[in-house]
Amino acid sequence: MQNQQQGIINPKYCAPHNVDLAIVRKVLTLTDTFSVTDVNSKMIFNLSASLLTLHNHRVLVDAAGQPVVTLRRKMTTTHDRWQVFRGESMEMKDLIFSVKRSSFFQLKTKLDVFLANNTREEVCDFKVKGSWFERSCVVYAGESLTIVAQMNKKHTAQSIAFGKDNFMVTVYPNIDHAFIVALILILDEINQDKRQSQN
Q1: Phi, psi dihedral angles at 75 (to 5 degrees)
Q2: Domain count of the chain?
Q3: Which family is this sequence assigned to (predicted)?
């Protein structure tokens, strides 16, 4: 399990120490765009969606603009299933992991994460528990209480003035931070849908 965790998307996104990331969501544009930086404001990842692909799939790219993973929603499922593929592929042979809501009715969002080789999906490989109202979430290893990453919202005067949502994410040692970023983006998409359905 440990080796698997070390490079779910790519071993180069693992570090032997905690990694703090800032995820900035700009919400004033026609579509939400996300940028992910380190504590020194150095760009690591970017995610933007065109209106055409807004709900079907999004591509996470690295600082050089190279596709890291494609996030795709399966449209016909009741549990909000998302699939994450290597690069720009959407073929099953390039599937890295899939995510679904643990149950249909939830006050706090809980997501089950299954790596591609876990085809039976009897026990999840990771679990995401997020409070939609508090904009915070914790990622656990499987059904355990072992935390591998956590996120909380960061308010600054600038973020309020410029219509940006800032999230601080701490990724624990030897955990793939591209994987964690992809999970948080999926959590946000599911929460956006939840908010729209309640309006």
Answers
A1: -80, -20
A2: 1
A3: Belongs to the LOR family.
Rounded to 5 degrees, what angle do the CA atoms 174, 153, 195 make? 110
CA–CA distance, 135 with 114 (Å, rounded to integer): 23
Write the DSSP string, 124-156: -SEEEEEETTTTEEEEEETTSS-EEEEEEEE--
pLDDT for 109-146, tens place per residue? 889 999 999 999 999 999 999 865 667 899 999 999 99
H-helix segments, 32-150? none
- For 195, the token pair is 């908010």
109 φ, ψ to 5°? -70, 130
Specify if 125 maps to a domain.
no
Cα atoms in the 13 Å half-sphere on the side-chain side of 112: 15
Please choose, from the candidates 2, 68, 122, the residue with its C-alpha nearest in 3D space to the C-alpha of residue 112. 122
Instruction: Give the domain CATH number at 27.
Output: 2.40.160.200
Calpha distance 130→157 (Å, rounded): 25
* Full residue range of the structural domain in which residue 95 is found: 11-99+152-198
pLDDT reading at 193 higher than 80: no
